[in-house]
Structures are given as structure tokens and as C-alpha cells.
DNA sequence: TAAGATGGTCAACGTGGTTGTCCAAAACGT
DNA sequence: ACGTTTTGGACAACCACGTTGACCATCTTA
């Protein structure tokens, strides 16, 4: 029956990867070749309001240390900046720089474009259905950022 | 306008991850707690006929060294064994052990079961459609094993 | 005020991937 | 046949990311 059970996860992943690669190929073309798939999710988790390393770790399902390290990299690349919280000397607020916000904005646009391409290929209604079915099946589950460690380590 | 473009990749990934986690949770219960998501794909790439490190690397889209390292780990865990090729003293044939074949077999069964659960939830026809649409959109693309490096590194 | 919780950083370690280098064995070409 | 590639494997160095454990400064709370 139906099809081989191996196919489903494979196809889901290939779809995921193509979208992510599509966005990063375009971002690279627009002057952000250093960004990795990982970073896009970090940007989104930081959001326009900013966060702290601990909070970021919680949102992404990794340790505060791991979140801190990723932030270090992003800071070095100029996408993020840290400042001390005037109300709490322990906290360091993390904010996207203008460059960071730009990436966030462009990513959203490019994802929308890619989605539109998919819609053009299989039909907008089918794509909506696909997405809806996926939500039905997977439920409300948060995205975990520990992909490298999860998959391999 | 339909939905947020961010949702699509997220949902695809969550679906992928749930299936993979489902399989590995069950495998862990059945005596294979050391296996990582990565390994499942390696098992499948090795197949019942076996391969070599170089060939495995090609199939999975990683360097022969990376493939070799992964094989080292699997060998240490007793899922794989190497033997010299009688016709070519350079080659080392890699084969699944009985334990390895067992995992491969069970994985396929569990994937089928999980797929059946999905079918029960959204309908078998919808799931078939979903899979078909995914194939239409993503085309015939091979799975790359370099997920850790791809995502994060 | 003393005790506890919280935010951040450093260090050590493990896994995975990459490139570069080397060697032995097979394949090839003249 | 013999010298020259090519090929399979292994080793080393290096980078990215994840984890846990420890430590300190600061805020909270009893």
C-alpha cells in the first residue's frame, strides 16, 4: 500500500531544505553570504523587540550557553548587538541591528515568494490544504533549534 | 493572502522531526537507544548489499572522510562490520550486521505505522495527495546527509 | 540581612563536517 | 612490462554547534 513509509519523512525534509536553501541563496546574493539556515530561526526568535540569551535558549529549546554562542557569532557578523539592561545589571539585551532587521524582513518576503511558486505549481488551494493537513497532523509544536545536535550528535 | 510564508518550512520540518523522533523513540524502546536520526539514513544508504565508505559518501552527499567517521561509530556500536574485498585489497566492504538489518527492517515497519497514523488523522487520500504534491513541488532530489553541517556549520 | 534564584561567561568534551596530505593497491597507456 | 595516474582509506588539523558543570555578580525573597 500506498507508498513506502520512508518516502514521507524524506519528502518533508527535502521540501524544508529546498525552501531554506532558496531563501539563503537569495540572501547570499543580496549581501548576506555568511548566514546559515540556523540563523534565520534565531533572527525570528529574537524578533524586533530583542531578547536575552537565556530567553532565546528557552524559545529555541537549547541551553543558554548554546544560545549565547550563536549570539556571539551573529554579533561578530554585525547582525545583532548587546546592551546592558538599565533595570537589571545582570541582563544583556540582545537586539537586531538594522542589518539584522533587513534580513528578517527580506526572509519573510522571500519565503512568501517561494510559497507562491509552490502554489503556482500545485495550485493555491492544494498548498493551503497541504499546510492545513500538516498542522492537523503535527499539532502545535514549537520549533527546536538543536537541529545539528538532534540529528547527528 | 493565504498564510505566512514562514509557516510552510516550519511545518514541513516539524512533520519530519516528529516522524523521525517517533521511529527513534520506538527503536530506543526496542533496545537501540544509541541510534541517532542520522544513522537511520546511513542504514538505508548501506542497504542489505553493503557498500564502501567512498560510495556511501557519494550517496549521502558528504565527503568520504565524513562517511568513514560515521561508519566508525556504527561499527563501534555493532551495527556494521567491515571486511576486505577479496578482489581489491584497497576496498573495505561495509555490511550491516544482523543487528543492523534488524534496525533497518523495524524502521521501515515503524515508518509505515506512523504513516498509517497520519492517514487515520487526515484521511488516506489526503495523505497520498500531500505526498504527491510534495513530490511534484520538490522534484527528484536526493537526500543529503550533511544536515548538521548544512544547518549549523 | 542572609539565603536563594537568575543571567552570563568560561572551560571541557563529544559529534559531525570540511579540507589537505599520504600511502598502498588497482587501472591505464605507451 | 613498466611507469604513471586514479582510487580507497586513514590521519591530522580545524571549525561549528550542542551538552554539562562550575563560578561570579546581581536581583529577589523570606
Automatic annotation (TrEMBL), chains A, B:
Question: Which UniProt keywords are present, listed alphabetically?
Answer: DNA-binding
What residues does the HTH marR-type domain cover? 1-139
Q: Does the keyword DNA-binding apply?
A: yes
A GO BP entry = response to stress
Family annotation (InterPro entries): HTH_MarR-typ, MarR/SlyA-like, WH-like_DNA-bd_sf, WH_DNA-bd_sf
* Entry-linked Gene3D superfamilies: Winged helix-like DNA-binding domain superfamily/Winged helix DNA-binding domain
| Keyword match DNA-binding | yes
**What would you give as a GO molecular function for this chain, any one?**
DNA-binding transcription factor activity
Q: Name one Pfam family in it.
A: MarR_2
PANTHER family noted in UniProt: MARR FAMILY REGULATORY PROTEIN, TRANSCRIPTIONAL REGULATOR, MARR FAMILY
This one is known as: DNA-binding transcriptional regulator, MarR family
* Organism, scientific name: Asanoa hainanensis
